[in-house]
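User: Hi! Is it possible to get a structure for several chains at once, not just one? Here's what I have:
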Amino acid sequence: MATVPKPLDRLIQELVRLPGIGEKTAMRLAFHMLRAERREVEALAAAMLAMRDEMTTCSLCCALSASDPCEICGDSQRSGEIVCVVEDTADQLAVERSGSFRGRYHVLQGALAPLDGVGPEDLRVRELLARLTDGAVKEVLVATNPTAEGEATALYLARLIKPLGVRVTRIAHGLPMGADMEYVDTATLGRALEGRRDM
Amino acid sequence: MATVPKPLDRLIQELVRLPGIGEKTAMRLAFHMLRAERREVEALAAAMLAMRDEMTTCSLCCALSASDPCEICGDSQRSGEIVCVVEDTADQLAVERSGSFRGRYHVLQGALAPLDGVGPEDLRVRELLARLTDGAVKEVLVATNPTAEGEATALYLARLIKPLGVRVTRIAHGLPMGADMEYVDTATLGRALEGRRDM
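Assistant: Yes, the chains can be modeled jointly so their relative placement is included. Here is the combined structure:
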């Protein structure tokens, strides 16, 4: 039985390392790249490397950004009184897309996960505390994920920040918009009932 | 609202051109590449370009291959009496993986699609006929896809090749192994009944 030609196989092996890409998808992608115009493949390879070269970390909020300070930290129009703490830059972009937040961010670059050996010293916690010393920040809105790690991180930060006299809030949990009550999981439903509001 | 940093966005735009990759998947892949080690991203970029440089077309069977003649055409152990005609190299590899075929291949590099302007002159039909002149090939097994285009191509080839005194066969259609009769589409069921065999 003849095997997949080496150069093709090498590409497939590299592609399956990507998250959510299985053997079949890798094969489809590799064949697409084989049939596509050469400059299309070159453009993708170049974009991958350029992205690695051009992205840096904002020294203020620790977000991955094309500039330092990042676009948001450098924007004087945004309120410096409220800082939204997220786990990573993807979460920050998600909050930005919602269009509902006009303050600044702080990217922890992870969440507490003692079982995986991720402690507070592995996160950008020290950098966050340093931003709270001059009294300009009035509120820290913790928007870590509603997972065990994210919740633990939120509790840890609240315990650390409250004594500094800064208000600490947590992003709300409840029914996602458009959800069907019947299919919402019990944990979410529990949180939604608990977090009910007057109307 | 701050936008996705430029270098990241450029990569996402390149990734969404790939088949089956939507905006969300592209974003996940881009963030993975951002967090992965630099040499991992470099290895993927290099594999993409190397694949384009090192792959060539076999001048005998027209398959995409790392060598010319390809591994299969150069293998004297394989029967030259039967040639399996497929639409593209991915289909050839699928037949190889089945381990049930020990002859040679011919890759058409497409299927007839008059509506998309793909005629016989766009396929490697001339190269196939050239292989049938010396009488060494006794059978042509047409394994184009069971689609409108693949079926039309199969009929076209049969009409062309039969007069040369070469046996022309079509890969069997019927129930896929492990299928549930109840959920098999009517066209497949029809073909399966029509193609029944004595047992």
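Chain A is about 40% helix and 10% strand. Chain A has a mean pLDDT of 91.

User: Great, thank you!
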